[in-house]
Design brief:
heterodimer, A: alpha/beta, Rossmann fold, Beta-Lactamase, 4 domains, 5-stranded parallel beta sheet, 5-stranded antiparallel beta sheet, 17 strands, rod-shaped, B: alpha/beta, 48% helix, 20% strand, globular
Chain lengths: 526, 124
């Protein structure tokens, strides 16, 4: 035992027995104090807290051994007591044990050996008892702590607006919260303990079916909720950390969280309806304005103007003014149409609602098609369009119509801002730099008015045409370049503007030579 | 005598199309108008026009429904149908193909294109 001597209180009214027991115990290394009866022993115990064990006679004057035990227990003094009884009073020993004595020793010739062994065993037993009490106290504290944590968690889980479902490794449901029960329109009893496939909507299958396959999780999916709403669900695997066992984390279940996104869906739908309605409401009167203006122009040119008699200078000037005014109405009407189309286009692109039709294409062909569409406008303005396209460009995967749209946009911008000189379109393979890998670069170089350095990145923002909008007549919708950027970036490419030679501008874009990772959603991550 | 049917609930658009197709009338083409889908369907069944300019968004019966009825129920495949839409949305184009429309024009349309198309169809 410990270095500090263990103190034993020996209680006996017989001085001879007291001395004998004290001698034996001291010989075994214990410190011994004595008392002559129960009452004296009780007082000693109250006064001296260092007593570890009592060895007491049963029959004593004033207070006997049994009474001593009872009184000690009543006073919450948890001292182990060994009863020393004579052979003739075995039944007394039994009484003593049932009253709480830890053991008993017979007062016979063998007591010299038995007392030492019994004391040692009693002390060990008492020590175990104390440890046991300590463990129980620790456990109670831990349990209470856990109960507290659990109360917090339960309150959170039961009151969260999102539906929560937990399964074990066999995909059987082990926990559902009230929100989930409501969302599925089931009762808790119907769900608990069931296999997911039996009680959950089919749409949720990917969230628990791929169990253990970490690569696929967390997965998300949508499902219809009770009452017709839409839920967005996310699933995840629950791992048990096994750091102590130094093993890999073990999958012990699945977690599914369902969020009611009905109102978000509704807002999205309302926005689509709004854009669609506005588009319709704007286009209908615009059809009349442009259409009737064209009819008027035709009637004037074919029926009225030729019949004017007395064509003096003044009439000629009036005819010219009328014709010019009509041209302005038609041109501005068409610009308004372009604006509506561009706004719709951009809104759809930003919402990811464009269907991208990827197919292999050669940039040379795309540029041919773009220049064919725009060259009449260049001829009209008397501006040369020079093409520098090598024959052996690699085939890339892209949406050809959209890339042609970009090229036409850049060429038409160059045309708008260049009054004399040439516009050059150039294509070629570029090394890594702006893109991670090899790319195909298309460059449009003009000799026009150029763009100030501070405006160069802004031109790709919506409605950020360079120049003073009050004095400079705007020449487009202000959405062409933002649309170009959306298209190029959806292809995983980059688009930028540079200072050109002789003060003009250079617009260029690069598309990756390797195809976009997957059709419909390419570019989402970029 | 070939007939062209113009269907739109907007009187201005009907008038614009009538003016656009005016010179064909001088060449002996009859231009008929209708202001809703139901009336249009009856005229198409009774008169079998060679060409229909058909607005999509109309009360009672939409252009899609009229087109579907003509092409798939009355089986009048010879009636050339041009859908006119102000929405310009991708799914409209797809829907137009599904119901068997021959052409799809987005408002605002160019009257010259309308006239050219009419001449082309009538020549067949």
């Amino acid at each position: 035992m410990s270095a500090k001597a263990i103190t034993i209180l020996v209680v006996d009214d017989d001085a001879f027995v007291r001395e004998m027991l004290a001698t034996i115990l001291e010989a075994n290394g214990y410190r011994v104090i004595t008392a002559t009866n129960g009452r004296e022993a009780l007082e000693t115990c109250r006064a001296a807290s260092e007593i570890d064990l009592i060895v007491s006679d049963v029959n004593m004057p004033e207070m006997d051994g049994i009474m001593l035990i009872k009184t000690l227990r009543e006073q919450q003094l948890d001292l182990p007591i060994i009863m020393v009884t004579s052979v003739s009073s075995i039944s007394v020993a039994v009484d003593a044990l049932s009253s709480g004595a830890i053991d008993y020793v017979l007062k016979d010739e063998g007591i010299q050996e038995t007392i030492a062994i019994t004391v040692k065993r009693a002390l060990e037993k008492h020590q175990l008892k104390l440890q046991n009490i300590q463990l129980l106290a620790d456990l109670a504290a831990k349990t209470s702590e856990q109960e507290e944590t659990l109360s917090y968690l339960t309150a959170i889980i039961n009151n969260m607006p999102d539906g929560l479902l937990v399964t074990n490794a066999q995909s059987r449901i082990t926990l559902v919260n009230p929100a989930l029960v409501t969302m599925l329109g089931r009762t808790e009893q119907e769900l608990m303990g069931q296999h997911c496939s039996q009680v959950l909507p089919e749409q949720l299958a990917p969230l628990y079916a791929g169990f253990g396959d970490d690569a696929e999780l967390p997965a998300t999916t949508q499902l219809e909720l009770k009452g017709g709403g839409t839920g967005s669900a996310v699933g995840a695997v629950i791992h048990r950390k096994q750091t102590a066992a130094k093993r890999q984390d073990e999958c012990i279940g699945n977690l599914v969280i369902v969020r009611d996104v009905t109102s978000e869906k509704e807002i999205e739908r309302m926005k689509d309806d709004f854009i669609s309605t506005v588009s319709h409401e704007l286009r209908t009167p615009l059809t009349s304005i442009i259409g009737f203006t064209r009819v008027i122009r035709k009637k004037l040119e074919e029926q009225i103007f030729p019949r004017l008699i007395d064509r003096d200078a003044r009439t000629d000037r009036t005819v010219a003014q009328v014709s010019e005014s009509i041209e302005v109405i038609i041109a501005e009407g068409e610009r308004l149409t372009d604006l509506i189309n561009d706004v719709l286009d951009l809104a759809k692109m930003e919402a990811g609602k464009i269907e991208w039709r990827y197919e292999p294409a050669t940039v040379g062909d795309l540029i041919d098609r773009a220049t064919a569409a725009i060259s009449p406008l260049y001829e009209q303005k008397g501006l040369a369009l020079r093409r520098e396209i090598p024959a052996d460009l690699p085939v890339i995967t892209c949406d050809p119509d959209r890339i042609i749209q970009v090229v036409i946009n850049l060429l038409s911008n160059a045309l708008k801002f260049t009054d004399s000189g040439t516009v050059t379109i150039r294509a070629g393979v570029s090394g890594p730099g702006r893109l991670a890998g090899e790319g195909l670069r298309v460059t449009v170089i003009d000799t026009g008015i150029g763009i100030a350095e501070e405006d160069r990145s802004r031109v790709f923002e919506k409605f950020k045409q360079v120049g003073d909008t009050l004095t400079d007549r705007p020449k487009g919708t202000g959405l062409g370049l933002p649309i170009c950027r959306q298209i190029v970036e959806y292809h995983g490419g980059v688009i930028w503007a540079e200072q050109g030679v002789e003060g003009g501008s250079i617009f260029a874009f690069e598309l990756p030579c390797s195809p976009p990772s997957d059709g419909g959603t390419a570019g989402d991550a970029r | 005598m070939p007939k062209i049917l113009v269907v739109d609930d907007e009187p201005h658009i009907r008038y614009l199309l009538e003016l656009t197709l005016e010179e064909l009338e001088e060449e002996g083409v009859e231009v008929i108008t209708a202001d809703n889908g139901q009336a249009a369907l009856e005229i198409i069944r009774d008169e079998e026009p060679a060409l229909v300019f058909l607005d999509v968004m109309m009360p009672k019966m939409s252009g899609f429904d009229v087109c579907n009825a003509v092409k798939n129920e009355l089986e009048l495949g010879d009636v050339y149908i041009v859908l006119l839409t102000a929405k310009g949305q991708e799914f409209d184009k797809q829907r137009g193909q599904e119901v068997g429309a021959d052409l799809y024009m987005t408002k605002p349309f160019n009257p010259d294109d309308v006239l050219a198309k009419a001449r082309e169809v009538l020549k067949r």
